[in-house]
Amino acid sequence: MGLFSRRRADGLALRRALPERSLPALVAAMGFLAALALG
């Protein structure tokens, strides 16, 4: 649970740093990282 909440905080920080038009790329990257973590 702690790891998941930390990853969520990292994602929120990235969303704040990146322009909104790169949000789909960010979502794809986070999905890829989640697949690696679960795999």
Summarize the structure.
Helix content is 82%, strand content 0%. With 39 residues, the chain is mostly helical.
Structural account:
This is ABC transporter permease. Keywords: Membrane, Transmembrane, Transmembrane helix. The protein is mostly helical and 39 residues long. It has one domain. 82% of the residues lie in helices and 0% in strands. The chain is built from two helices and no strands.
Question: What distinguishing features does this structure have?
Answer:
single chain; 39 residues; mainly alpha; 82% helix; flat; transmembrane; ABC transporter permease
Strand percentage lies at: under 5%
Q: What ranges have pLDDT less than 50 throughout 5 or more consecutive residues?
A: none
Radius of gyration: 11 Å
Measured as a percent range, the helix fraction is over 70%
C-alpha end-to-end distance: 17 Å
The rough form would be described as flat
Q: What characterizes the major β-sheet?
A: none
Into how many domains do the coordinates divide?
1
SSE pattern:
HH
Number of E-state strands:
0
Report the average pLDDT across residues: 77
Number of DSSP helical runs: 2
Backbone structural class: mainly alpha
